[in-house]
Every structure is written in structure tokens, then in C-alpha cells.
Amino acid sequence: MSKSKSPKDEIHVGAGGEWHQTAGGKHPPLTTNQGLIIADNQNSLKANPNGPTLLEDFILREKIFHFDHERIPERVVHARGTGAHGFFELTHSLEQYTTAKILTEVGEKTELFTRISTVAGGSGSVDTPRDVRGFAVKFYTKEGNWDLVGNNIPVFFIQDAIKFPDLIHAAKMEPDRGFPQAATAHDTFWDFISMTPESMHMVMWIMSDRTIPRSLRMIEGFGIHSFRLLNAAGESTFVKFHWRPKLGLQSTIWDETVKITGADHDFHRRDMFEAIEAGNFPEWEFAVQLFTEAEAEAFPFDHLDPTKLIPEELVPLQVIGRMVLDRWPTNFFAETEQVAYCPANLVPGIDFSNDPLLQGRLFSYLDTQLSRLGSPNFHQIPVNAPKCPFANLQRDGHMQMAQPAGQVNYEPNSLSATSPRETSTAAFRTAAVAKTGEKGRIRPESFADHYSQARQFFLSQTGYEQAHIASALVFELSKVVPIHVREAVVGHLRNIDESLAQRVAGGLAMDPLPAAPPTAAPVQDMPPSPALQIIGKMKDTLDGRALGILIADGSDGALIARVKKAALAAGASVKIIGPKVGGAKLADGKLQAVDKQLAGAPSVIFDAVAVILSDVGASELAAESAAIDFVRDAFGHLKAIGVDPGGAALLNAAQVPTDAGVIDLKNEKSFIAAAKTRQWDREKTVRTLA
Ligand code: HDE
């Protein structure tokens, strides 16, 4: 089959129409979808100048008809997403374990399309709710499309696919009132959670700062389920897949996240777009955890239970490749909206495990595309089509784009010399697994321990991160009206860690502590795993980070230039913010260009800020609430603040105290060093955490 044409090739050009030369370029004639050249795209056809519009106006009708049908159903989950093209490059072969070419041909680059999403919100919802991020990668391999459809958290809420509709119904907006949008802080979500002890490990993750990432370029990705690798001898090895961001992990602070949501609805999508446009291509390492069936038997948990992870300290990660996202889609709808992932899209040499959540997913993704994309031929849409040859005898259906030739559309047949045939070489094979037992609606006993890994996660965090988890629980449960639901959740927390339960109960003014529910299996003390922290995985870098420099008329141009140069050299992007977008008149009379106007560029969208002001500029901005909030929030969100004397005067006016993270720009090296991290010690001085 031939490769699909790119959408760029599809412009219809009316025969014989003249192209228009303008200052902006050369334009083809505007036509209808039938190729008819349109003379007037401003006025519909009227019976007379003041008269009614005529039904005859097929040009109007075609245009409105198409517009009326521009939308397709959004994804039932993960509706809000950002996608980009890129490539995967293998650096270490797994030949011993698998026949999959993508995992054995070192140096080979495979094209891919990655979509990162939130889960609960609709397609028009904000980028920054507290939510899990979907992390879906479609590899267009030589042996067919392989979709690794994961999340930025290595475990999930539930152990069995049959609970998924309940979980999602509970998390999404409540059905009678139609809100809240993209938020778990409401009654139905926590009601369901309080009655689903298997979700407790995931609850620890979602209440951590993992669900409020600074950038989609700074999240990890996980395949979650165990898969199998199959080698040439037919032997299978279990595997877990991991993505690790080159820029390190980084999250925002909850108060900051709430304000980012107001400042920039599209904060993550814009960040990804700007990074790719600037040539700062987002990159992840691809790593695997490999283990045998016998090793798995010895784990103190069942790896087929998707609420469990395999600590890196138990089975180390082996980095085998990298993914680079280097091309923004040509058209958002055609690519990011229409891309259809499916965990059942595998290549030879990779197979599923019996994880019951994965097994349910194998049905759902293909099925949902029929509602969403409307046709069994959705695989022909360019972003979904394999880039290797594919041929079979499936035919017809809505929007069939191919024109299969010949008399024969069945197999076996003796009438065609060219029709595709089943082939045993290089074909997909299923691992031969010998398992016996009784049929039934059964949850294995090995899935009974719901608290040990939740406890391990909480106890592995730094003190700052533990405080954020406890405070997030207080925040969310404070939005839950029924007291019995709050109590039930705090009861579960007692099975995770007594001090966590006490802190959350304290934050809710809940006294006495509710009883802990009985546990189906004893809670085990597992060794702490520092790899579960975010702070431990942050990098001291300004790469991929943004510095905002607040200036006004009268600012010191030489200092602005010096700070900007130092930040750029350290890898940051730099934006100059001023009261007026047209620029600021510097102390030396020159005009300084301004990238963003103050009211539209609060400090929450930067990782560190510098404030460079004349005395007059400082006193003018002292009467400007946006400027006061700019420095107060930068301080409150634990950012480094570089100041000259005018900047210090503004901080003073805003009653922002001085600490080790407020740095005189005379010493711009110290400022740049401080800008590479957050001032964690400051936190206790700016907010009360649980
Ligand atoms: Fe999904 N999920 N899911 N999911 N999921 C969908 O497929 C589903 C689960 C994930 O960017 C849907 O095309 C079931 C786990 C991502 O287009 C749907 C179950 C994980 C995306 C669906 C799960 C995911 C989806 C909606 C429980 C992490 C976005 C639209 C058995 C490993 C893909 C679509 C994109 C999307 C079903 C659980 C990740 C309805 C039934 C666990 C990243 O088919």
C-alpha cells in the first residue's frame, strides 16, 4: 500500500485560476471542496440587496455544512493533550531478550508521535489541574506500530479493568451539576476512593507534586504494566518500561499552580510548543527493568497487580535508548486530536502480561475510536497509519480512502497471484504460558496488600515532599462535604502511616482520629526508595527553565544585559517584563524592548526573577498590584529573586523579607546558582503546611 499523502498536499486549486501575489506570499485561488473558484467570500447570495438569502447559495451551504460538523467526540478520558513528532534511537540492544527490531537495532532511528495529556478534564480544560499525565508514544517501527500508552505515575488506582468506568465517573464532573471540571477535590471522587483501598498507593502519588508538573518536558513516563519480551528461542522475560526526562523532574507548588491556571490556560502546551520552535527539543531516556518469572515469584508483591511498582533499588533500570521530540504537528486536529493509541498495538518480540487492568485496556482503545473517529478505517488517517507496508483483506466501511484492486477479498484463495498471505517468519507470536486454574470472577490473593507500597512511597519522600502530600490531602478533603467520607480516607491513612493520618486530621480539625479499616494482608515495612522522590531527581540546572526580568522606565540597561547574558549562558530562556509592551526608556535614554506586559506576565510563569528598577520606577511600581504580586509570589513560591537597589525598594514596599534566595545582582553568579533550584528552607516561613 502506498504511503498516505501529507495534508499539506491536499489543497484544492481551481483549474485556471490566477494565483495572487501579495507582500506576504503567493496565494492559490480559494475554491469550494469541488474545486470551483470562489469570487466573493464576504457576502452570501441574496434575492436583492436587502433581501433574504437564497437556498440556491451552495457556496454558503457547503461552507456552513462543513463548519457544523467540525467537531468530533472528545476522548472519554485524556481529552486534553499536547502532541509532537520525534524519533526514538536505540543505544543498547536487547537482542538476548527480544526479536523486536526497535529494541535490537542499535543506532536505528524510529519515527514516533507522542501525546501527553491530563485525564479528567475536557479537551478545552486547563493544562494545570492536579491530575495524572498520560504519556502515550506511537512508534512507527519497521514491523508495525507499537503504542506504549502509559502515565507519568508508575501505578494505577485499580486492579481490575471492570472498575475503570466507576473510577472515571467518580473523578469527572458530578453528573447532576456538571462541575467541577478537571479536579479531584470533590465528593464523588473521594467517596469512591474511600471505598477502594486498592487505590491508596496511587493516592499517595497523586497527592504528591508529581501531579503538578512544571513542564511536560520534566515528567517521567511509565508503561505501568509488566509486558513480556520474547527472544528468538521463544523464551520470555518480563519488562517494565520507563521514560526519564533529560531536564530532570520538576514540579510547581500548589498555590503557584492555581495562579498559573489563571495566568495561562495553555501553560504546558505553550511551553512544549515554544521549546520545539526554539530548537530545545524535549528529550527522554528510555529504560527497562527486566526480570524473570522466578525473580518475580520472590518479590514481596505481585508485579501483575498494577497498583504495585518494582522499586528501582530492587530491579535497576537499564537505559537502552532515547526519545527526542523535534517537530510540532502541522495541524493540531489532524494529528494530536485524531491520533489513536492502543495498548494492543505491539510488534513481534513483545507480548502482554496477565495484568487484569492491561487485559481490559486491550479491548477499550480500539472500541473507543469508533465513537471518536467514526469509522473502522481510522488507521488510514496519516498520523495513525503504519509507515511500514501493510496489507490485508479488510474492506470497505465509512470513509474508505484506499482503492484495493482485484477480484479477491478473501483468504485462502486460488484466484489471485498477489493477495496477501499469512506468513510465519517475522510474524507476531504470543508467549506460550502454561497456567491452569478455575474460571471465575476472582481477585488473586497476591493482590490483597493495599498499604505497604503506599507506606514505602510516603516514607521515601523528603520532609518537604511529605508536607506537600499531607497538605494536598487536607486541601482536597476540605472540599469534600460529607464528613464520613473525610473520616474514611483518614482511616485508610492510618494504615499507611500514623503520623500522616494525624497531620491530615489536624489540618481538617478532625478529632478524634477515625478507626483504621481492617487490612486484608499485613502492612509490610519496605526499605525506603529515594528514586520515588521528585526533589532527589531534580537537576541543578537552568536548562529548559525561564527567567523573568522586571524592568520599567529608568532601569539600568547594562545590568539587564548582564543578567540576561548570564541566564542565557546557563541555558534559561529570558523574558523582559515591563509596564508597557512597547518598551521602556532606560537610564541612558535608550529604548529597551519588552517581551511581555506586566499584567499578563506574573512571576508564576517563571522559575526565577530579577527586578531591575530605578528609584522612580520602584516607587511607581509600588502602587501597582501586579508588581507587588510579582515579587510576593516569587518569594512565596520559593524562587530566587535577584535585585538591584531599585528592585530591593520594590521588595521592601511589598513587605517581602530578605533571605538567602534574595540576591544582590552585583553578584549575578550567586543569583544564577540560586535560580537553578527552589529555596525549600523558605517554605516554612511563607505557609503553614500540614
Ligand atoms: Fe486509558 N483510555 N484506560 N489508561 N489511556 C484511553 O482511549 C482505559 C489506563 C491512557 O493520548 C481511551 O483513545 C481503560 C491506564 C492514556 O490519545 C480509552 C482502562 C493507563 C490515554 C481508555 C484504562 C492509561 C488513554 C480514551 C482501565 C496508563 C490517552 C481515548 C482498564 C498505563 C491516549 C482513547 C491519547 C486513553 C481506556 C487505564 C493511559 C477509553 C478501560 C492504566 C495515556 O480507551
Please describe what this structure looks like:
The chain has 690 residues and is α+β, with helices and mostly antiparallel strands. α11 packs across α13 and α15 runs parallel beside α17. The chain starts with 19 loop residues before the first strand and ends with a helix. The chain has 19 helices and 20 strands. It is 27% helix and 16% strand. The strands form four sheets. Strands 3, 4, 5, 6, 7, 8, 9, 10, 11 and 12 form a ten-stranded antiparallel beta sheet that branches. A six-stranded parallel beta sheet has the order 17-14-13-18-19-20, with helices on both faces. It has a two-stranded antiparallel sheet with strand order 1-2. Among the domains are: 1-70, Cytochrome C Oxidase, Chain J; 81-161 and 213-380, Beta Barrel (Catalase HpII,  Chain A, domain 1); 542-686, Rossmann fold (3-Layer(aba) Sandwich), CATH 3.40.50.880. β19 (641-643), α17 (645-653) and β20 (662-664) form a beta-alpha-beta unit. CIS-heme D hydroxychlorin gamma-spirolactone 17R, 18S binds at residues 75-78, 81, 115, 117, 134-136, 149-151, 156, 161, 164, 224, 339-341, 357, 360-361, 364-365, 368.
